[in-house]
Amino acid sequence: MGNSLNYFNSRENNKAERVSGNKRKRDECPELNNAGLELLNTPKRKRIKSTSKYIYQTLFLDGENSDVTLHVLGQEWKLHKLYLKQSPYFASMFSGAWKESDMPRIELDIIDENITCEALKIAFGSLYKDDVFIKPVQLTSVIATATLLQLEGLLLQCQVMMKDTLSSATVCDYYYASCSYGLKDVSIQCLDWLTRNILIAANLTFIKDVTADLMKTVIASPHLVVIQVEIDLYTLLKKWIFLIHNKSWTGDNKDLVKATDLFYKEKQSECPGLCYLETDEGRQYVPVFSAVRWHHVVNDLTSLRMIENEKILPHSWLEPMFLYGWRRVLAVEQGHDKGPIEKVDNEVFNTCCARFGRLIHKAGEYCWRWIGYSYGVDLLLSITSGRLVTVKRNTHTQACSQAVSLQDQRYIAYRLTICSFDCDGKELSRKSTDVKHISLGKDEEEIALVLDSDQKFPISVSMNVLLISPGQEPLPGLKYPNR
Prior knowledge:
Number of helices: 17
CATH topology of the largest domain: Potassium Channel Kv1.1, Chain A
CATH superfamily of the largest domain: Potassium Channel Kv1.1, Chain A
Strand content: 15-25%
Structural class: alpha+beta
Oligomer: single chain
């Protein structure tokens, strides 16, 4: 007993000594002590099998313990009412007085042609797990399915994805889908993309999918980025019509110019004596051409000659523009109009302004004017010191090929917008002056905008300008038959 007791006492003493020794070591090494405590309190992430994945595989894909079978588009889905009730569509079906509420097998008639089996799998599957994987090409059909099943969460995910993947390859499909299914934010963003990119896209073949109604909306927009001047919209519409009638055509923008010219020459030989818009084929496009601001086209001789030679739009249709323009010239030259002295309402400004633009690929010093008669105001736009964007009324300091007004003051209204964008045309930054009303003396210059010190390029420079007072009479339109 005593030996045993001594043994236990000895063992306890040794243990106490070891513990005491360890304690001393820890006390003597505070760094080790702190590191150990930190390690003990640092959470470790260990991936284990996801409950969500298990549910998706076992219940959705394998259909275990299914209590309802849906027959849709020739395919059967063994599902569960508990999960389906997350959809208001099925919640109403299973909880109301509908005959389907107690049926083990339900057949759904699908009218919307955009709904596919692939989209149904994504939509039904989203009820069994909290993440979904959708390809951009599937978005329209998934949106159609989510709209039918009233899956707001899935619709929201689709909208975010549409905004993230917007490009020339997707913009038309996304626009039509958003209009069909009431996704207003997406349709606005698509329209904004088109107004910024339709004249600067690296490859224009995507415009073959732009409908006449959509093209008219884009062309009529006061926020359209016109590169360079209004006549370039006429050139765009020529290419658009060619691509509509040659949807399989492929090539770059240079080849497109040649192919378009050849297309209209062939049309002339088929219908001699008629301009293209007078033919049965071309007449449908007249409303789109009417959206061009022709009163800003006829003030340039080169543009007029091009229209006459190409015989797409009859020259006689432009007669109202000549009369309107001549009256405005007389008002300016005889001193009755010095520009918009009174503040112009934004709606009036947006309707009457001339639209100009330029694409700048890299930082540097720039100074330019746009072509066309400008009622005696030689307006120069400059980027100086790499950042300052200025507007100048030139009278003496730089040579000008047209007559310049020497009135002491001329009044103008303008809006300047500068955007940078990525390779898909998504906007990276935007600066705008809103509508400004200013008076400029001879050779007077003012700073319009200051670019950021880290400004990204390329940038589009879009300027809307009103050089003359808006008249009381309505703006002239094309004088085509039955008008």
